Amino acid sequence: MFEQFASGASVNVSARSESGRVRPHNEDSVLARFPLFLVADGMGGHFRGDLASSTAIRVIDEAIDPGSPTTPEAVLAAVRAANRAIRRSIGGSGIGVSGTTLTGLVATVADNGDRHWMVLNVGDSRVYRWNGRSLTQLTVDHSLVQELMDAGLLTADQASRHPERSTITRALGVNDGLEIDAWLLPYDAAHTFLICSDGVTKELETAQLELILATHRDDESRSLADAIVEAALEAGGRDNTTAVVVEGVRAGEGELVSTGTGARDLGELGDTRPRSVPR
After folding, report:
1. Would 274 be classed as within a structural domain?
2. Cα 34 from Cα 192, distance rounded (Å)
3. Considering the domain boundaries, does residue 56 fall inside one?
4. Helix, strand, coil percentages, rounded to 5, for the chain
5. In this predicted model, what pLDDT tens digit does every residue of 139-173 receive, in sequence order?
6. What percent of the chain is modeled with pLDDT above 90?
7. CATH code at 265?
8. Alpha carbon distances (Å) from 143 to 16, 100, 114, 180, 222
9. 277 within domain boundaries
10. What pLDDT, on the 0 to 100 scale, is given for residue 208?
11. Residue 276 domain-assigned?
12. Which of 2, 35, 235, 239 could form a Cys-Cys staple with 107, CB 3.0–4.6 A?
């Protein structure tokens, strides 16, 4: 775990990514440096998945300056640039169609100086919020089984066993056009955020994640991200497994303070919001 200080903000961050116990290669890519905390899960086979996820992370990393909050507009522009870069890379490689999920948390600042956490999502990697008592999934999966659940055609239990449970309906690199779920949350120290690939959520139920978050005590050798990834590996580790944990430091320990009253979608920027925006 490491503490990051930037422009009057302090957050504790831990990150870990493993190939798992079954997959020989890790197609997940991760970026964990202020103001960007992102996870990308590549698809399309080893080389194609690696290329798509690493390209997405590289392009966004290069587009956003480190150390200070950025703007929502800059984040969305960087994600779209990543989509174009993946399409150029895949098209010139002769390896066929590929793509990657992308989800995460970004510290942003508005024109009036107000700060927010921006949550963004494309695909079925996830962002969760932990308030010390319960874990809430903030993102909505862009997947076939999620659409069937929304239509009332599948239960959550049936979705977990469905033969096409890994089929996603949005990804970077697949089409020239890209729909991005993006919205803003208060920028405060009241919550911890978990960002993860489906290698975590396929193996661990919400109750198991809550237990880890509630009982874990950090030390120099084992962070919260370590604990979550290791639990997923112990549960089977059937997929690449990545977790990033972002913890705000409360007033008196740092300078991260509340600057918002609730979630706000970014529809005015031409992007979508989740089917159910947490309040």
Report:
1. no
2. 15
3. yes
4. 30, 30, 40
5. 988 865 666 555 666 566 665 665 555 667 899 99
6. 57
7. 3.60.40.10
8. 25, 13, 34, 14, 33
9. no
10. 97
11. no
12. 35
Number of domain units in the chain:
1
Name residue, tokens 């989800």.
Answer: 103
Its pTM stands at 0.85
Whole-angstrom Cα distance, residue 36 to residue 132?
Answer: 23
Q: Which residues share a beta bridge with 127?
A: 195
Contacts of 183 (CB under 8 A, 6+ apart): 118, 119, 263, 264, 265, 266, 273, 274, 277
3-state secondary structure 251-278: ECCECCCCCCCCCEECHHHCCECCCCCC
End-to-end CA, the chain: 29
Q: Look at residues 75, 163, 182, 71 and name the one whose alpha carbon lies nearest to residue 120.
A: 182
85-94, 154-163, 259-268, range with greatest mean pLDDT: 85-94
* Burial track 81-106 (b if 16+ CB lie within 10 A, e otherwise): ebbebbbebbeeeeeeebbbbbbbbb
Please name the residues in contact with 213: beta carbons below 8 A apart, sequence gap of 6 or more: 130, 135, 192, 194, 224
Which residue in 68, 64, 56, 60 sits closest to 107, CA to CA?
68
Q: Domain range spanning residue 57?
A: 2-269
* pLDDT tens digits for range 163-206: 555 667 899 998 899 999 999 998 877 789 999 999 999 999 99
